[in-house]
Amino acid sequence: MSDRYYYSLRRLSPFQGMLQVVDVDSAMAYSSDGRQWQVRCRNHLGHFRTIGLWSEDTRDIIGRCRDAATLDAALRLRPALPFPQNDPYELWLLEKESARPLALLSSRQRLTGLGIPHDLGWRAFPVADNRFVAPSLAALDAARPQGSHPLPHGNALERQINGAARPLAAVQWFQRHADGSGTGLHGARLPDTLAGRRLAADDFPELLVSEEWGDPAERCLVQEYHDWNAASLLALQSLSSPTRRRLESAACRQPESLTAVYPLLPVVLNAEAMKVALVAARLLQAVGG
Whole-prediction pTM value? Predict the structure, then answer.
């Protein structure tokens, strides 16, 4: 019988939450909510192709996969969510002056295939997603000349982050260890002295982007971005208690964002507040639907 592997991965470039994975080597299933799974099977050339969806109600969809029975069994017998996070290789955009990790660009499960993307810029959101609203930028918006085109707040954040890495942005892969430290691997535009360096856990931003900025307005903008993504970020499995508590509070202010990701949270610190937020989300969905 094929081995079964259960793990989760971060969806990055830009961040779009955690992906739960059921892997039987010749076939895989992915889910962002733990309920509906996208099924991919390896063809005769060794390449994976998407062949359909699986859920408790539509399991027959994977019948076209030659390893359908193995994958179906792995899905039915899957352990409790969330699965352990398993993407310890991280690609970081580096801050220009200090060469410290500034923003997370990508992560991988294995050492093989750690390539360097053509575009070394950090992206806050998918293209055309301009929903992010940063309260700290409200005054700047109000000061714009009447009739001028507003600058999307996500674009303003990207300018800030990428500007701190330019000109000639450098990136580096790191292998993160159990204690949070990291060993530097290869990268792009790196001085030779940085290959093989060992950084402490505190040298890495805990979330997606460093919140250490000399300008309070810049620091606030990054914090607002993380708070905007709070529900999805709560699915990360190595958060400190103060950070998790802060993100829980932010997520409860956006109750509808919690519904899909709640089953994927590894721990909840304020269960009562979360319960209230989930009830509010169901009421909002009922009114809207």
Answer: 0.92
